[in-house]
Amino acid sequence: MSDFDGLVALVTGGGSGIGRSTAELLSGRGARVAVLDLVANDLPDGMFFVRADVTDDQSVRAAVEAVVERFGGLDVVVNNAGIGAQGDVSAATDDEWLRVLDVNVVGMARVARAALPHLRNSSSAAIVNTGSIAGTAGLPQRAVYSASKGAVHALTRALAADHVREGIRVNAVAPGTADTPWVQRLLDSAPDPAAERAALEARQPHGRLVSADEIATAIAYLASPLSGSTTGTVLAVDGGMDALRLRPRG
Ligand SMILES: NC(=O)c1ccc[n+]([C@@H]2O[C@H](COP(=O)([O-])OP(=O)(O)OC[C@H]3O[C@@H](n4cnc5c(N)ncnc54)[C@H](O)[C@@H]3O)[C@@H](O)[C@H]2O)c1
């Protein structure tokens, strides 16, 4: 028996990067997995793709209902879909603020809202949100994105409080900079991609980028019914970036 045997998991943003790794890991550990995304190419056999935009409430509700109809219920929601934003507060337009908060924060709330009636019917209900080191540490040129991820961490704790007595656990992961298609796009757009990559690696005490599989493992830990007493936490998966203060090498 595996810990996710018999459970149904919905992973938003499961078409790429961290979400993709999480969908594959949960599937490998016995879950029936649905991927909610704008696009998802080459999903493994047996994974159910529901096309939806987390900024569109109708499409989110329809996607959740399609998953429940297909698999007969819903136990685990991984709220992972998100977009980035670069720049300081002067550079960010109102449109950018509203767009990023709509995807990264309200998107998670929409998915949780649509899923809650089904999670209440599960004896292994869990939501895991993807936060970020940007939600806990001040990073340069990330004003809008950081505000959105700080809100994800706060939303995680608020949801955990509201639903603990219904048997629904809510947690988040806070990854450091991870080796995903998103970060590769950022590197590709830098004037010197190799130098930019080296700077990002050096910023993390363990000296490298975090892998998507390492974040998926943390998400699976929080989502697992074996973690029944863990709720309201934000688990750093950042090579020590948030918690450690190293002396310079020398
Ligand atoms: N990569 C990192 O360094 C890093 C670090 C910390 C946190 N995160 C967070 O991890 C999550 C996943 O990031 P990733 O690096 O895997 O990125 P990614 O770009 O590889 O994957 C993100 C996925 O979300 C989907 N998505 C975007 N907008 C959507 C929408 N409106 N509706 C539905 N799906 C949508 C995309 O289509 C894509 O498949 C994000 O929430 C991101 O903020 C990433």
From TrEMBL:
SUPFAM superfamilies: NAD(P)-binding Rossmann-fold domains (SSF51735)
Keyword NAD tagged: yes
Protein name: NAD(P)-dependent dehydrogenase (Short-subunit alcohol dehydrogenase family)
PROSITE patterns from the UniProt entry: ADH_SHORT
Alphabetical keyword list: NAD, Oxidoreductase
InterPro entries for this protein: KR_dom, NAD(P)-bd_dom_sf, Sc_DH/Rdtase_CS, SDR_fam
Sequence ranges assigned to domain Ketoreductase in this UniProt record: 7-176
Membrane-spanning parts: none
PANTHER family: DEHYDROGENASES, SHORT CHAIN, ESTRADIOL 17-BETA-DEHYDROGENASE 8-RELATED
Organism of origin: Lentzea atacamensis
Entry keyword annotation includes Oxidoreductase: yes
Family, per entry: Belongs to the short-chain dehydrogenases/reductases (SDR) family.
Domain of life of the source: Bacteria
Signal peptide, first to last residue: none
